[in-house]
């Protein structure tokens, strides 16, 4: 049912486009350069921009997002997009930001046996979806927020990525002092997520603390944080992603200040997992978060398996006919 819903929502969007729009909206899933060329900074993208679509077309794009994302992550994504107008007002409008500045590009179309996918992307949002042989991939998955917090007399009015910070702080609180010393690997946080918008991330030497060093309560909390990031996806997809994780091989590290309101960063690593969180810019009121898979970003693992199976099928057919 999950895959059927994603395909139906994508068909609905495609069906709303006219001929000229389709020409700009649809690219080949085999265009590896374009699939791997992603960003979370402001700027134009390939495809069609929401602000120039009709109302029904914009709703169709949101329908695509809502089928892949869990309800809470879809709410986060919608809030991130809305913050563009808040940021634009704070800046006096000189960068001409708008909540319509998000682009959709399709990679192939649903139907038949060929892989397909899409990306919805703009400032602080990048959701990359590939579907092949009945399986769905959705990384890199980036969410950011600027401002990260909107307050009234010191009380938070809006903070779409609040739990990304609070859960990590709860983990630090659950650690004993020995584990915390292992977890905090630097007093200075990097200015951004270390992986940036690189097309691929290679496994780096893991640093920080492992579940075996945390104790039962903190170890469970670390797994809960990973599950929280995976639960950005619709629950059926999140379950599949969680089944790939080996909890015993996770590492958690923190960099920067432990005091609220000061720059901080954390990273969770596993053999096929990278989660990064950074909040340093704009007086620690500008958050970047990303979830990536080393061999599976942009559906590369699904596409490789699909094309490998196709070559074997062709080879068997040639052998039988020969």
TrEMBL record:
Region of interest (Disordered), residue spans: 187-207
Source organism: Lentzea flava
UniProt xrefs under Pfam families: DUF3500
Protein's name in the database: DUF3500 domain-containing protein
InterPro entries, A to Z: DUF3500
Recorded superkingdom: Bacteria
């Amino acid at each position: 049912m999950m895959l059927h819903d994603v395909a139906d929502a994508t068909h609905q969007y495609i069906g709303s486009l006219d001929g000229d729009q389709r020409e700009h909206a649809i690219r080949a899933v085999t265009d590896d350069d374009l699939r791997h060329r992603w960003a979370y900074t402001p700027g134009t993208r390939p495809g069609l921009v929401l602000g120039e679509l009709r109302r029904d077309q914009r709703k169709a794009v949101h329908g695509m997002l809502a089928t892949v994302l869990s309800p809470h992550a879809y709410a986060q994504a919608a809030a991130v997009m809305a913050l563009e107008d808040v940021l634009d007002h704070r800046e006096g409008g000189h960068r001409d930001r708008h909540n319509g500045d998000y682009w959709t590009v399709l990679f192939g179309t649903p139907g038949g046996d060929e892989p397909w996918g899409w990306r919805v992307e703009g400032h602080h949002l990048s959701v990359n979806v590939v579907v092949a042989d009945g399986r769905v991939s959705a990384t890199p998955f980036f969410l950011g927020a600027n401002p990260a917090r909107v307050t009234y007399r010191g009380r938070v009015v809006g903070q779409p990525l609040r739990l990304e910070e609070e859960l990590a702080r709860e983990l630090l609180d659950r650690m004993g002092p020995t584990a915390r010393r292992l977890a905090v690997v630097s007093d200075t946080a990097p200015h951004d997520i270390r992986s940036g918008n690189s097309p691929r991330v290679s496994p780096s030497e893991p640093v920080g603390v492992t579940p075996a060093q945390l104790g039962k309560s903190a170890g469970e909390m670390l797994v809960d944080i990973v599950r929280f990031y995976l639960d950005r996806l619709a629950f059926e997809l999140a379950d599949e992603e969680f089944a790939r994780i080996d909890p015993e091989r996770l590492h958690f590290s923190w960099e920067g200040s432990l005091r609220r309101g000061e720059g901080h960063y954390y990273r969770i690593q596993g053999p096929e997992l990278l989660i990064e969180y950074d909040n340093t810019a704009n007086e620690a009121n500008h958050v970047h978060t990303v979830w990536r898979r080393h061999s599976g970003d942009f559906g590369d693992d699904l596409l490789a398996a699909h094309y490998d199976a196709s070559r074997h099928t062709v080879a068997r057919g040639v052998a039988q006919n020969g």
